[in-house]
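To: structure desk
From: M.T.
Subject: fold request, one chain
Message: Could you run this one when you get a chance? Sequence is below, nothing fancy, just the single chain.
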Amino acid sequence: MIVDADIVVVGAGAAGLMATIQAGRLARAANSSLRIVAMDGATSLGAKILIAGGGRCNVTHFEVDETAFAGASRHAIRKVLRRFDVPETIALFRELGVTLKREYTGKLFPTTDKARTVLNALLHECQRMQIDIHNSMRVQSIDRDNDAFVIRAAPKKGTEVSFRARRVVLATGGMALPKSGSDGFGYELVRRLGHTVTTRIFPALVPLKVPDGHWIRALKGVSLHARLELHSASGKRLQAFTNSILLTHFGVSGPAVLDISRYWTDAYADDPGSKIVVNWLPGETLQSIDEWLLAQDTSSIGRRLSQRLPERLAKTICESVGVDSATVSHQLPRQQRRALAGALVETQLPVVGDRGFTHAEVTAGGVPLSELDLKTMQSRFCPGLHICGEICDVDGRIGGFNFQWAWSSGYIAGVSAANAVI
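Reply: Done. Structure tokens follow.
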């Protein structure tokens, strides 16, 4: 059975739903009776939306620009972000009945503090636009048929069905959180249609692991503000983030760790000597800490440090360099004092890997933006195919930036696809 449609959107996550809604809105405004079909292989739609932000969904960030992203060139990313920016995102969700609030981190959440509010609003708008959405419908292939596409899909239960469409929007996502349905098959689909993907496809915004037996693992549950720097083997600083980090039973997590993770993975692939250095006291230097330790204070090192660091961490750092935390700091021999200062502001994090796509929030790598017309997100190799969202070679920092990429790129793809067939 072949079903005719004007636009088929493959993938009903954030980018796919945005593309679907914008295509539907444009068709309605033009009094056009386009048939728009969206499909997703997942049993339940919007899994990533529902778990984002601890189940609250940080829809975007109050200030988004190209500097928050990696992958494609910043110039290319800026072009897309400017077509549908943060104020327009806020306005759209307000139209959909979702008011957003800004928190001290700059993240924008629904005032309900429920991700379900966001997903329901998107799905309700699709319903209002009379769009056919099919979940548990896995696309098997997409082939050209003269000026159209034939999309073959198989439901988890039932008979295989094919759609013939004039335009296709590919929003399949990457490989992060495979339980949400993102298993990387979108890369195979896009390759068959003439595209390439980057040589590296790897987890981003992902916790990092340290070796068994390292003292960090014994401090699971300790959280603090710290600065992480990525250095090359030659000592050049490549990237840095200052934010909260969490020590865990496997290594480290938290915003600063998630943000630097993709840069470490990328750098390490070319330069195995690349390393992450932790400053447990952001703003302090070897010299300033050395002077602080020399101050005439009768308190023990442990007591002084526990005023600035979690007590368990302070004691363990002392132990890691052979310093008795009960010692009065200015009585330390110079060599021990300098070793302690180095441990406080320049601890090398012995990363042995990350926790993989299962625990990653986003995928690094994908379809190069150079292969797309950024005014339409249309393929330069396969006319009629629009590509948006996480499948593109764009990944952002934690805090709503990746959602904004989804909204912006999805908007362009949906509007452009509809404009082409109205």
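Reply (cont.): DSSP finds twelve helices and 23 strands in the chain. Let me know if you need anything else for the meeting.
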